[in-house]
Amino acid sequence: MTDLVRAPGPVVMGVLNVTPDSFSDGGRYADLDAAVGHGVRLREAGAHLVDIGGESTRPGAERIDAVTEAERVLPVIRELTAAGVPVSIDTSRARVAEAALGAGAAVVNDVSGGLADPDMARVVRDAGCPWVLMHWRGHSRKMRDLASYTDVVTDVRDELGQRIDEALAAGVPADRIVVDPGLGFAKTAVHNWELSARLPELLDLGYPLLFGASRKSYLGRLLAGADGAPRPTAGREAATVATSVLAVAAGAWGVRVHDVRATVDALAVWAATGSPRLVPARAGGGPPT
Ligand code: PMM
């Protein structure tokens, strides 16, 4: 999986939430067979990784305990990895990550960037697996109150830089680290658009960048009807695909999406037209050595 981090991209991560309450797919894959079936379909559609989450991180969500989270994700991870599907675990708990890695997960996707659990760095370091460090300021219940920035792009870049420094200090090798601006996490719609427009400033960190805009509420607000009501999640797919192509063209290493086929198809068009970049591609594409 280290090779996946070093890959020039674009890497497509398919979302599989085994939660009753996630904003887009909550409740649909709570049953083991349905979850495994969907994970296999995401892989067949071209996902390089299937990202399995057992705790909803939508704004305002209440936390569940670690045992419940592990009980939701572990059987799905076991079955999918046995079927040859590469899996990442979407958790900010070290205990859950450790059990998921033991069950076959290859990557830790930590929406807290290591902040929520001081033991996460050790788990990742000992496993030698890639670690997605997402920008985060606090748990879902209170994150709306934390969306205050001097300049959202420089603040997110600086805070991600701190997370990287802490990971390196804990012994996690640079070539296992992926960063993510954390769209919608302690961010308003204006913040999300600003981060999207200025991705190259985040790429200055020198690490592969994952972009997760799929079906998020700021897209629903952009596409609101004449009555001002946000477009429901099911109608946000074309906008999601546009965000994926723009992010990859701006230099993102990967995208995290619900509808894998639509994004894979769009990225095939992008590749067939010569992989046009909005900014000159950086040499190397990985962390500084
Ligand atoms: N967003 C969600 C959950 N996990 N992980 C990363 N790395 N980046 C994200 O933007 C991200 C994430 C919330 O969306 P979901 O409920 O559709 O999973």
Summarize the structure in words.
There is one protein chain. The protein is of the alpha/beta class and 289 residues long. The protein has a single domain (2-272), classed as TIM Barrel (Alpha-Beta Barrel). The protein is built from 11 helices and 8 strands. Strands 6-5-4-3-2-1-8-7 form an 8-stranded parallel β-sheet. Strand 3 (87-90), helix 4 and strand 4 (107-110) form a beta-alpha-beta unit. Helix 2 (32-44) crosses helix 3. It is globular. Pterin-6-yl-methyl-monophosphate (PMM) binds at residues 15, 17, 22-24, 53, 57-58, 90, 109, 111, 132, 134, 180, 182-183, 210, 212, 256. The site of pterin-6-yl-methyl-monophosphate has 19 residues, from strand 1 and strand 5.
Topology:
Blueprint: H1 2-6, E1 11-17, H2 32-44, E2 49-53, H3 66-82, E3 87-90, H4 94-102, E4 107-110, H5 120-127, E5 131-134, H6 152-169, E6 177-180, H7 189-197, H8 199-203, E7 210-211, H9 217-222, H10 237-249, E8 254-257, H11 260-272
Parallel strand pairs: 1-2, 1-8, 2-3, 3-4, 4-5, 5-6, 7-8
Helix pairs in contact: 2-3, 3-4, 4-5, 10-11
The site of pterin-6-yl-methyl-monophosphate (PMM) has 19 residues, from strand 1 and strand 5.
